[in-house]
Amino acid sequence: MADSGTARRRRLGSTGIEVSPIGLGGLQFAGRGMSGAVYTTVGQDTVDAIVAAALAGGVDWFDTAEMYGRGQSERMLATALRHNDVAAGDARIATKWSPLGRTAASIERTIGTRLACLDGYPIDLYQIHSPQGALSPLSAQVAAMGRLLASGKVRSVGVSNFSARQMARADAVLRARGARLASNQVHVNLLHRDVERNGVLETARRLGVTLIAYAPLAGGLLTGRYHDDPGAARARSLARRLMGRVYGSGAVARSAPLIAEMRAIGGAYGASVSQVALAWLLAHYGDTLVAIPGASRPGQAAESAAAMDLRLTSVEVGRLDDLSRV
Fold it and tell me: pLDDT means per 10 residues in the chain (326 residues)?
């Protein structure tokens, strides 16, 4: 069997939009609210440098959300793109509508605010942030997204954290309007593989929907740094540990054999543990999946981008597959 690598472009669902297999998540750019309790606040100069490092490494798309600091992440991302001389349309931008306590009518009513926060950069992918919390049924929310698509205000429609059944229903609503669902953003990494058991992966492949993997490094656990210093995981904020969903209950000890194997594989290629973790995701799930690691420092963005050039053999992919089932 040939080595498992990754092409430099992957299509979002059945749209004509192509993106790099690794994008950049923008939660760290919010600096307040929910994300402020999870990550250290970063200033605009740092965001500019993070985006520059991602672009230099071949990353050409960025994921953000209304919920990330009430538009702060969107604004900081747009400013960073402008400071890096990226013209509108030269990078892909994905953002999300927050459903909490709102009706579907707010999707169309607030699209102008989303576009204003992005300061002239178009929305290539507009996502429903969660299947819970809205005051309107999912079908009404997806239909509103479809109207935005038909009007040309967004280029494609996606969802986040949708079950297999919800994802299929969203695609059916869009198909009735002559469109298709592009993506479902879900929690996927070597230590969190529920998509393989709950029907999400199977349904995504059947419908031609791209899965966007958030928390692909398990909140830092798949970098190996907590295995070098187990106390560092406990020192993280409660919100950060909950975000990773793998801390506690002996997760560091249980995953030690996996991390050791990833170190050995990475050592053979001159790659880091986190690069091996990302390369495994891209190889194991193939064109069905793209990943959006975040970054609080430029070096992290550069490191993640370089994972696109790491090719693991099928034997290495299989070995990590086995060890990750802890």
Answer: 59 97 97 58 95 98 97 98 97 98 98 98 98 97 98 98 98 98 98 97 98 96 80 56 55 90 97 98 98 97 98 98 89
Q: Which helix (H) or strand (E) holds 12?
A: none
- 86: three-class secondary structure by DSSP: coil
d(CA 162, CA 168): 9
Give the Cα separation of 308 and 52 in Å (integer): 17
pTM of the model: 0.93
Do the beta carbons of residue 94 and residue 124 sit within 8 Å? Answer: yes
E strand or H helix that includes residue 4? none
Residues taking part in catalysis: 68
Contact 151, 241 (CB under 8 A): no
Encoded tokens for 14: 């059945």
Pairing of strands 92-97, 125-128: parallel
Phi, psi of 249 (to 5 degrees): 50, 35
Report how far residue 310's alpha carbon sits from residue 288's, in angstroms, rounded to the nearest whole number. 18
